[in-house]
Amino acid sequence: MVGDPETRFDAIQAAVAAAFPIQEVGFLDGRPAFTIQPGPDVKERFLRLRRDLEPLEVLPLLREREGKTVILLVARPPAGRTEWALPLGLFLATLVTTLIAGAINTSGGGSVAHLIGSGLAFSLSLMAILVCHEMGHKVVSIRRGIDASLPFFIPMVPIPGLGSGTLGAVILTRSPAPNRDALIELGASGPIAGFIAAIPFLIYGAAHSSVVARSALVSPVCSFSSPRLVDFLVNWLLHPDPSSGVIFHPVLFAGWFGLLVTAINLLPASMLDGGHVMRALFGSRVHLVLSIAAAGVAWYFRYWPMAVLILLLLRRGHPGPLDDISPPTAGHIAMAAALVVIFALSAVPLDVTCQ
Q1: Is omega for the bond preceding 220 within 30 degrees of 0, making it cis?
Q2: How many whole angstroms separate alpha carbon 2 and alpha carbon 136?
Q3: Residue 72 phi/psi, 5° resolution?
Q4: Which residues contact 239 (CB under 8 A, 6 or more apart)?
Q5: pLDDT tens digits for the chain (355 residues)?
Q6: How many CB atoms lie within 10 A of CB 216?
Q7: How do the domains of the chain map onto residue ranges?
Q8: Which of 80, 70, 75 is nearest to 1 (CA)?
Q9: Beta strands in the chain (DSSP E)
Q10: Who's near 73: CB < 8 A, 6+ residues apart?
Q11: Rounded Cα distance, 248 and 260, in Å
Q12: Checking DSSP bridges between strand 210-213 and strand 244-247, what pairing results, if any?
């Protein structure tokens, strides 16, 4: 690190000049700014500049301003310390709450051993899906040099009927994604990993669920809508007729919740996974419009707390990637398109009827 301010600025300017031809030096939005000539390979050059500026404790932002390409400088946030105690404690607490939720939502009750077994089947399956989702984000953050925390799982008081014992998990990012490709990867990796992880649990759970006549069901019975993927697997593996009901195996119930978490995260709003992807594809203005639309979709699907949260976060916006100019590759656009399919297979209205 260079201590003297003038010497430090000279080092920063030299690093920028080594990456791009500088046309003008000044200030913009109260920050040091370099008007540059982008030239070819701008994405790769910017990544090298980002690495070169790390010892100087600044981050470059590549932006378009009034028809010019500029590099703005912001202070590099201090590297976060990896904290283990709180994430581990929340993980263990969520294991307990999901186990209780799986037990109390077991159809027909049963012995204590049966309830514990059902609770474990539900809890371990759901937690495995959520861990894969969050580790998808974590792996991308490490690969792309994004400073991110370990996942924080969110336990919830188990609710009879449809409670899962958890509100999912979050990873806190302390530094922006380097470019649009990385932002798409950061947003898409969790839903893709979680969706893929859910498939074997859904297949196993559907195969071990029971088809019974509706007249044989013991009250109270709760019925709820299912995602398209769950409906497909149940019809494919069990062939229930319209007059029958399906009693979900706890593992299928866990997969159902795993798809619900995936769908909620894919809403194209704010700092949700879908919001990251839409911000990378379409920029800040479209991201704002999509966030408002996503709040409406969340309300329609009865994700009421999420709809309110999205509206509350509208003013915060999205910081975007460091390089907000270089377009995403065709492969990353295809990755984003795959999320539309995943959302269509995973989304389900929270329509629960108990009688």
Answers
A1: yes
A2: 36
A3: -100, 150
A4: 211
A5: 456 777 888 899 999 999 999 999 988 877 889 999 988 899 999 999 999 999 999 999 999 988 899 999 998 888 778 889 999 999 999 999 999 999 988 766 668 888 899 999 999 999 999 999 999 999 999 999 999 999 999 999 887 766 788 999 999 998 999 999 999 999 999 999 999 999 999 999 999 998 987 666 665 566 778 999 999 999 999 999 887 888 899 999 999 999 999 999 999 999 999 999 999 999 999 999 999 999 999 999 999 999 999 999 988 889 999 999 999 999 999 999 999 999 999 999 987 666 5
A6: 8
A7: 5-75, 85-354
A8: 75
A9: 22-28, 31-36, 58-65, 68-75, 152-155, 166-170, 210-213, 222-224, 244-247, 352-354
A10: 12, 31, 32, 33, 58, 59, 60, 61
A11: 16
A12: antiparallel
Nearest to 314 by CA among 287, 296, 276: 287
| DSSP classification of residue 129 | H
CA 124 to each of CA 21, 131, 342: distance values in angstroms, whole numbers, following the listed order: 55, 10, 23
Report if pTM > 0.85: yes
Beta-bridged to residue 48, according to DSSP, are none
**348 neighbors 301 (Cβ within 8 angstroms):** yes
Cα separation, 195 vs 290, in Å, equals 23
DSSP string, 210-256: EEEEGGGPPSS-EEE---HHHHHHHHHHH---TTEEEE--HHHHHHH
